[in-house]
Design a protein that fits this description.
By secondary structure, this protein is mainly beta. It is built from one helix and 23 strands.
């Protein structure tokens, strides 16, 4: 995935998609990156009314919420650290050093295990090898593991059961690398096509990937099957981010113009704008 393609897609999705906790929550959050300082806006998840703003530090690249919505974990590039922030008060609870800055190579490089016990921070531009930092969310202790011989790494994702990590490798016509999330040993590689613009994992365990050829690829990591479908695009620009509905029945894809396509994934993709 090219950095410029990722940047265009991610800049759109900061303003388009809200991130909420895995469990029901009255709040939704949207990250405003790369200002000084960066912020996270807190919105009512029903009315979308703005409630408050949480300062996340200069270069606050990305964040994830704990499953209960109580804590935010934010990668802060300027200070080269992971900040743990109380979502209700905005108080910084802990600062975890990440010696390699995590911005500069989009996409945003953080993912949490489904049980909330671990945070994985990817530093794809570290040399000579890319790095994965694993942070224990109870003790805030971290370990790092190199990922050798990868020229570019896409956004980290994790399976719904927490057993496997996924990320895309290569600018174009690359592959999805599957790792064991405990040992970080390779499990398999799944070939994909095109220049990816966004990826997501559905609650049912499928990987969704859009590309610059206006296609949706639905990837089954258990069988390695990849099905490719055209996206409806009437001059909407490059596909941006993609998210799945909680029941895995619908995918939502944003486009550069601000349009959002709802895509039914059952029994086969059907589209509406």
């Amino acid at each position: 995935m090219s950095p410029s393609t990722r940047l265009a897609a991610q800049m759109l999705t900061f303003a388009t998609f809200l991130t909420s906790a895995a469990h029901a929550s009255p709040n939704a959050f949207v990250n405003i990156c790369c200002n000084a300082p960066s912020t996270a806006g807190v919105f009512n998840s029903t009315t979308l009314a703005h409630a408050r703003t949480i300062v996340t530090g200069s270069g606050g690249d990305s964040f994830v919420l704990s499953p209960n919505g109580a804590k935010m974990f934010v990668t802060v590039d300027n200070k080269q650290e992971l900040q743990v922030i109380a979502a209700q008060s905005g108080t910084i609870l802990a600062r975890v050093p990440t010696p390699v800055g995590v911005s500069g190579t989009v996409p945003l490089n953080i993912v949490m295990s489904p049980d909330g016990s671990r945070v994985f921070v990817f530093a794809p531009q570290a040399r000579p090898n890319a790095l994965i930092y694993i942070v224990d969310t109870a003790t805030y202790l971290s370990t790092q593991t190199p990922i050798p011989a990868l020229n570019t790494i896409g956004p980290p994702m994790i399976s719904p059961d927490g057993r496997q990590l996924y990320f895309e490798v290569g600018y174009a016509n690359g592959y999805i690398q599957v790792l064991n999330s405990v040992s970080l040993q390779p499990v398999k590689q799944i070939q994909v096509s095109g220049i990816p613009t966004a990826l997501a994992v559905t609650p049912s365990g499928l990987i969704l990937m859009t590309n610059s050829s206006n296609q949706l690829q639905v990837i089954d990591p258990s069988s390695s099957n990849v099905n490719t479908f055209p996206l409806p695009n009437t001059n909407q620009g490059t596909p941006g981010n993609i998210i799945s509905s909680p029941d895995s029945a619908t995918a939502y894809v944003s486009f550069a113009t601000g349009a959002i396509a709802a895509i039914s994934l059952r029994p086969a993709p059907r589209f509406s704008m």
